[in-house]
Amino acid sequence: MIRLTRAGGGAAAMGALTLFAALASGNNLLYLVYGLLTAAFLVSWLWLRLSGRALAPRAEFPEALRMDGRFALRLRVANGGRWTARALEARRGPDAAPLGELPPGAEARAALDAQLPWRGLNEVEGLCLQSAQPFGLLRWSRPVAAEGLALPRPLEGTAEEEISALCESSGLERPRRGAGDELYGARPYQSGDEARLINWKLTLRAGKTFVNEFTEAAGAKVTVRADAGAGERAISAAAAALERCAVRGVQFRLAAGHDKTPFGTGRGHLTLCLDRLARLGAGGKARPAPAPAGARAEDLPASDPRLPALTLAGGLLLYAGLFIVDDIETPLLFACAPVFVWAWLVVRGRAPRLPDWFWTLASTGILLYTLLVDWRLSGVMIANTHLLLYMLANRLLASRTPADLRQAFIIHFLAFFLVSGQTISPWYFGFFFAYAAYAAAWLGLALSRGPGWTPRAALRPTAAVLGLSVVLFTATPRIEPLRQINPFVHLGLDKRKPAAEFAVRFTENVSLGFFGQLKRSSARVMRLKPLGGWGTRPGGPPAPFLLVRGAAFDRFDGRSWSKSAPAYAVRAGARAYRARDGRVPAARRGRALEFPGAAAGVGPGIEVTLYPLNTSVVFTAAGLTRLEGADSAAVFDHTDTVYFAAPYFTGTSYTAWGSRNPAAGFGPAILDYDRLLAGPYLALPALDARIAALAGRVTAGAATPREKARAVAAHLRRDYRYSLYSTDARRDLADFLFVSRSGNCEYFATAAAVLLRAAGVPTRLVAGFLADEWNEYGGFFDVRQGQAHAWIEAYVDGGWHPVDATPSVGLVQDRAERALGRLRRWATAAQLRWYRNVIGYDSFVQRDTLRRARLAVARDSLGRAADAAWPLVRGGILAALAGLVLLTLRDARRRGSQRRFAAVERLLKEAGYPRRLDQTARECAAVAAAARPELAPAAALVELHYRELYDPRGLDPAAEREADRLLKELRLRCQTLRS
User: How far is Cα 724 from Cα 831, in angstroms, rounded to an integer?
Assistant: First the structure.
């Protein structure tokens, strides 16, 4: 039988609360905690089943037990299985005896104090073998059958007449040496004689030890009668008569009705007669012997001297974990550090413990402060975290008993839960594994009940729990509608919701350093489903990534970007409409809104599903000419930004049809557009003089605006470093360009815009998203807050063309770069993957992942089936050899393809387009070809490479020749670019 322990019940309740909080808030770290708890239960159940099914317990009783006499009931256990059983104990009522660890093939014994209350057969109740390994959440228990015989206790003080009435004598009595009452004579002492038989007078006279011999009735036989229906007093009297006969040395027997024992003498025959006597009447049927009364002992930790030190280590771990919670004041945490140093000294016995009255007063004051003050000042979640910090210190300093250590462990779990609900830091990954290892070690040591436990004993179950928790994290369904009714938002547990300041600053201004904060969240913002007009196969992505355009800004004050409100007019047919507050309303045609350029026809379409945001920006991907599905009105401005009439606090969806010439924007419809190009798009604030000088050096030799834009973008990508750590709003553009030389995307975009304006090229900054997460299951791009991006648009050749000066953040770097730089880039890439793949894991990603897994399993199954059928299909050694030759030739061709692909990667890297680890080969080639049309052969080579890898037929000779030609052409073009 396996059932919950007291600790398991609490863990199950916390698991249910954790699952509810995870479902309601969408916090994926809470899903991970739920997976850890559930995995611990599943591993415990399986471990107990496997280790307990082959155990063979057997109860052993001492011989000749007397009724009501206390004795040691021994339990012998043999392990006939293949699994080691740990933390075994024999238990009966409140009494328990540890058996410890039992490897396969070994035996162990334990003894419990017991008592048989009935004459005859007794069925010992409550005896069981149990274990709570490996974590104490579940208890396996197996009842042990134990039936013992209690001999009747002789009646003390029995009168001679009462005994004589039960005895019948037969035969002639004659005296002989024996154990009678009359003296027979004396003889020298022999080894084994009883000291009470020594004749002291004769010994003193003779100087030699003599003993007395007595006479007994020789030839007499005594029958002791006992009736099966007699009372317990009569049975006890018969037992006394049998013992009297055994002492006197006469032959005796027991006659119980028609059942008679043979005549005999001695203790052995006495035991036989008492056994028959014990089974008379009610003694012949087993009667229950209840377990001792008294409360069952609590499941307290073992009194192991290592446990307090381990508990202190766990407290320090949870204290360190609080540092990764952004909302907790770091100075407060540092102020608490001396408390943990003091706790360490207390555990080591080098510092005194504070008295109990002090902790009573301190706890009362802290609790009142939390309820009356801190809840209102800090909020419920942060106030509770402050309270938990005090509880950590309290238990570490005031713990004296095993019960105190158990309370400390429970508080540690609560701290783990709160940290999981309030952080999205990548440092949580290591914190999670460290806590899992600590919890497994603490529970294993607490259950060990002995000094033989080592951390190695918990290694296998802990590894199984961690592996299963990842599976459960992946498989636990994410129910998105539950997030609409979310009681945990105001507690700070919903770390996937878009930040409030994101929506406000997105529409009003963009400050330097702001995007570094956005990158830390993977909250889903929108979904983009491509429609017609993209020129790709249905269901596939239109491009490796999309620049999702939001708001554009034309005014820079040195630290932040905002939007000017110039006076202008827009031509619509034969009429002109003046802008009001810098914005012009869009014309409604039926259920659609039309924008300048709609008369020339629509371009690619995209279906946009937006989550609730405090913004009214209309997001587009290829310009905008027609907007369908929008219930509210919309306006646009001179920066080609479109707004709804009101923010979509509850989310919205619409279909945006792009333009056939997205670079033109709304400019052709704006009257006197050249005035705007010469005004706000070229305006510069008072800047460091070095910036203008840098612009001159970078664009020297560039004759056209396009060449200047390429030169500036190449300079920033080559000589500056992207970093997610640039969140300090006090840094200005000069600091980025000449001191730190690293920053977020808005630093690169601002630098490019300012340098190009200084070189006479009109620019504007665009805030939007870089959508590159394609969901094959739903056929859409997932766009998250962490993908927020800033770039610029430069007015080149009569249109606004995007210029992205932000370098890649991948791990493929130049060998000449310093190791520290590579480490920083690795950390940045790891952060991006953490925020996207763990924090942002939800139902759509889950279904897409499971679909990929099913396809992989199906492909693997088909491959195994084909391998099994291969000999039958070929049917002979000759055919097998022929197939081997064909496979060898195909591998040779593929190796040639791999060499070509490696050459393509090397050439792209030398041209300034190294492949990032988060990029496919197709994406890398597309980016390079879009930036430099001269590198277009790389995209064709990559497609041939994919065909070679995944088409069973491989490349035909014509395709091989085409691949060689493209590679040769790419080498020549790269040489031209270098020269």
Answer: 9
Q: Give 498's pLDDT tier (boundaries 50, 70, 90).
A: very low
Residues paired with 561 in a beta bridge: 510, 556
Q: What pLDDT is attached to residue 58?
A: 92
Measured CA to CA in angstroms, residue 92 lies from 133, 296, 603, 751 at distances of 19, 9, 82, 79
Element (H, E) at 880: helix 877-910
Q: What is the pLDDT of residues 204-240, one digit of tens each?
A: 888 888 888 766 555 568 888 888 777 888 888 888 8
Helix axes 306-321, 337-347, angle to 10 degrees: 170
CA dist list (Å): 781 to 83, 542, 622? 49, 10, 15
Q: Reduce the DSSP state of residue 90 to 3 states and report it.
A: strand
CA distances to 528, 776, 779, 780, 922 from 541, in Å: 10, 9, 8, 8, 12
- Residue 26 and residue 59 in contact, taking contact as beta carbons nearer than 8 Å: no
> Residue 829: which H helix or E strand, with range?
helix 819-834
Residue of 900 and 777 predicted with greater confidence: 900
Go through the domains of the chain in sequence order and give each one's CATH number.
53-145 (2.60.40), 160-289 (no CATH), 308-453 (no CATH), 501-678 (no CATH), 875-978 (no CATH)
Average pLDDT over residues 54-83: 90
Give the angle 651-653-656 at the CA atoms, nearest 5°. Answer: 140
Distances in whole angstroms, Cα of residue 515 to Cα of each of 306, 560, 720: 48, 12, 17
Contacts of 849 (CB under 8 A, 6+ apart): 474
* Two structure tokens written together for 318: 């949870």
Beta-strand ranges (E) seen in 772-887 are 773-775, 780-784, 788-796, 799-803
Residue-level pLDDT at 500: 44
Higher pLDDT pick, 683 / 729: 683
915 HSE (CA, 13 A, CB side): 20
* Mutual angle of helices 337-347 and 380-398, in 10-degree steps: 30
Query: pLDDT at position 760, please?
Result: 93
Rg (CA), the chain: 45
pLDDT in tens, 376-422: 887 777 888 888 888 888 877 777 777 888 888 888 888 888 888 88
Q: Is the pLDDT of residue 50 over 70?
A: yes
Q: CB–CB of 559/512 below 8 Å? A: yes
Buried b (16+ CB within 10 A) or exposed e, 820-830: eeeebbeebbe
pLDDT of 451 over the 60 cut: no
pLDDT of residue 501: 43
